[in-house]
Amino acid sequence: MHSHKVSGKQIVSYASFCLGNLGHSAFYGVMSTYFIIFITSVMFNGLQQSVADKLIGLITGLMVVIRIVELAVDPILGNIVDNTKTRWGKFKPWILAGTVVSAALLLVLFTGIFGLAQKSWVLFAILFVLIYISFDIFYSLSDVSYWGMVPALSEDSHARGIYTSLGAFSGAIGWNGLAIIVVPIVTGVTFAVTGKHEEGAPGWLAFAAVISALAIVSALIVCFGTKEKHNIIRDSAKQKTTLRQVFGAIFRNDQILWPSLAYLLFSLANTITYGVLFYMYKFVIGKPGDFWVVGVIATIIGLFISPLFPILNKYIPRKWLFIGGQTCMCLAYLLFIFGRSNIFLMDLGLALLNINFAQLVTVLTVTDAIEYGQLKNSQRNEAVVLAVRPMIDKFTGAVSNALVGYVAIAAGMAGTATAADMTAHDISTFNIMALYIPLALAVLSIIVFLSKVTLTEKKHAQVVEQLKDKLAEGEIEKEQAAVSVKTQSVYAPADGKLMAMSSVVDEKGQPFPGKGFAIEPSSGKIYAPFDGTIKFTFGTKHAFEIISQNGLQVVIHVGLGTVNLRGEGFETYYDDGQAVKKGDLLLEFDRDLALNNGYKDTVVTFYTQPGRIEKSSAIQAGTTIKHGEKVVEVQFK
To answer: Which residues are catalytic?
Structure first.
């Protein structure tokens, strides 16, 4: 069934989206990691050290504040993107404009605002704030648009998964690749311009220019190589989430809260370490020229981690993949602390540092928490899931920027200092901030995940089954006051043999609850049983709810036990919230895959508000039926 041929157009679309994040992610790396290094090492050279330290403190402080305030601004920017209407769609104009404007502003920042600090540091500080805020807003507009575009590129969750993992894959290369090229470009250009072997201002500007150009080229590739599907860019009003809703949903749902906290701890450790690795090579080991190794090792490991995840996850539960990755991280810190004089141990440490599945595990666990939250609080917060991870990344980026600025000043690693200037006290200050604190954070993330994250793949399957039973028994929906009795014809959603609900027994031998009918299918295609709107789909894709135009709510449940396939073998052709017509092909499923795994392929159609059903015509059990033929006439309140 998954032998769907991927068309040439689809390959171009995948490749274009993938390449888009190469420049986009590298650009983010420049602004989040290397800009701070530029500020602490070059921007204020020539100023009195005390003034320079004050300015470094002021600017890193401002960057943190701006970043944290921006968390509240992101939903507003998402809203702006959502409300954009142009002939090129709503995402592409912002991807391009956001990238071009933020690239231009980044270059101005990398000139030290044309050396203004040397003339008037007060004017410099004011302008810096204005430029940095504008820069951050435009970067965020392109970022929100790039990732927000995924649902508009495909209705199918399998294809969306491919887009997301390709984006993450090239993002890792863009981000880690910076470490390979930063020292050669910065020192090479500085030497060419000034004749000095150092990381000087001309080199940093050239580095920023190269990455800015790459970001713009990547943005153009996305704009020309992908196509937004206009039929499904639905009314996204229900996707607009305010910051209050985001936090409300996180704090009300413990299985969004705890994985998010574990990820926050991991992300803090990770961003702090990456922020200071350059200083470690330059000041502690005294070999800035070897820093490229960091990028090479990270890139090589990054190439394997994303593709390996689904393979490993077949045999190893997500929880243990998360903990395994965090354990590797802890070992990496121990090697950095005790094995610093040994190049082999350092390289081994760098390799271990990059073996982590935290991001993928968090996104998947939090996605599963949608159903968990629906069962627990009767709330389904899908947009929140998309917002949680980028919010955490922004927050930890801000905190790490602050710490890196602080480390540079506290450990005497600012300005023109070299490894020879480091005292034992400087080194121990560096160790505490750069290694001991992140090590503690990595250990804490393991403790949180082990003790608090209970939503395993197995538990999620149980949650979905409980939710299905509650829906079928009518426990979840609020009973509406009887107004008038309406009539609705329900047509067969599949080809096959009709079955009475009483004869449906699940894979464990339990009777299927609720009112409705079932079909023993002869093919794996599922069609709309009437004109209506798709209300929601379970994360595992084996069941979805559809509401008829006059208000009859029905769940089509494909197969019994198929929740355990976790979406494998299911392909959807609609979007939640989409209006569909009777007979539209909505879903295909691989019946052989279900049967070979010991599950049943029975297609059950049940009413989610059984209390509203007044009467229903008899079902001709045992008769063969084609999709689109009438099965029952239902009268409901």
So the answer is: 557
